[in-house]
Specification:
The protein has 13 helices and no strands. It has 334 residues and is mostly helical. It is 67% helix and 0% strand.
């Protein structure tokens, strides 16, 4: 017997062709596992726009929010404070509910209901009510101090809630921007404190909580559904409140009053929050919140154009300083 025709001779093994064939082990590229049958893509991938688009959307939300105080002042010309808050929430819920029904959006998961309740308590009920009560005795310039502190407060609550740890550069720029805005708005309002400050600081806390929770939920569902379901969940409270308030407060609808009511309902309460939450889902709550440093200055511009209030020469300097702080926070690691 020769060694080359012994049992040690190499024999080729037939490999069946077709989809069940195993690629050669030496081909690293073809050996990579592909997507498993039956698995769907991550649904969150379609909910987050790219960072540039997210920044633009968040900025559009800030522009919408900057009109809230002047529009509320207009609304108070024709409606009482309780009527204005309750009716704006009902109108916004009607818009949101119509969209949810038309698109046949399924009910949110039970695990999201607590977060939606926080959003509703903060941005649907708490912030509108407290700021409206404050604007009865406070100017829009003075009330803007709330928004001056809101970005920093939102970033702090977000860090506590989600565990994010922005860099020291981010915190330094955020604190500097808040200081500039507060100093400017206090100087603009004459440096006087009013009894409305308790309402304003309460509004600051509940709104920051609503923004933080809404930004978190916007990572697992579209932003418009976050505010939409929050508005709908508040209907058992806002509908009776609207009926009760309208029956006890005088209503004298004027052109300004109606326009103000429609804007705070459709613009501030729904459309602004839709783009805001979608933007936060894309770039993160801390970074998006710092774009609101520009909101008080925009509010003061609107107050000049719409309400006839006056700005000081310090406005351009404050605006430039705020823009620098915003630029730093957007580039800082979060």
């Amino acid at each position: 017997m020769r060694a080359d025709d012994s049992a040690t001779a190499q024999k080729s093994i037939a490999v069946p062709a077709g989809p069940e064939a195993t690629p050669p082990t030496g081909d690293a590229t073809s050996a990579r596992p592909g997507p498993r049958p039956g698995l769907r893509p991550d649904p969150q991938s379609d909910l987050r726009p790219d960072p540039r688009t997210g920044t633009l959307l968040a900025a559009l939300g800030v522009v919408a929010f900057s009109l809230t105080f002047p529009a509320t002042a207009w609304g108070l010309e024709g409606f009482g404070p309780w009527s204005l808050v309750a009716v704006r929430s009902v109108l916004a819920a009607a818009i949101a509910g119509g969209c949810l029904l038309w698109l046949r959006v399924p009910l949110p998961d039970r695990r999201h209901l607590a977060g939606l309740a926080v959003v509703g308590a903060g941005v649907v009920l708490g912030f509108p009510l407290l700021t409206t009560l404050a604007l009865e005795t406070s100017s829009t310039a003075h009330a803007a101090v709330v928004v001056g502190l809101l970005p920093l407060t939102t970033a702090l609550l977000s860090a506590l809630r989600t565990g994010t740890r922005p860099s020291r550069t981010f915190w330094a720029a955020a604190s500097a921007g808040a200081a500039v805005v507060i100093a400017f708005t206090v100087q603009q309002s004459g440096g006087a404190l009013s009894r409305a400050d308790a309402y304003l600081f309460g509004a600051l806390l509940v709104c920051a909580a609503g923004y933080t929770e809404g930004g978190r939920l916007a990572r697992v569902m579209p932003g418009w559904q976050v505010i939409g379901w929050a508005l709908v969940l508040c209907l058992p409270l806002t509908v009776p409140a609207a009926a009760l308030a309208l029956s006890h407060e005088p209503v004298e609808p004027t052109a300004h009053g109606v326009i103000g009511l429609l804007w705070v309902a459709a613009g501030s309460q729904f459309l602004g929050l839709v783009v805001w939450y979608r933007g936060m889902a894309a770039i993160g709550v801390p970074r998006a919140s710092q774009l609101q440093l520009a909101q008080p200055l925009l509010t003061l511009v609107w107050s000049v154009l719409l309400l006839g209030e006056h700005l000081t020469p310090a406005a351009p300097l404050a605006a430039a300083a705020v823009l620098v702080c915003i630029a730093v926070t957007q580039r800082a690691r979060t």
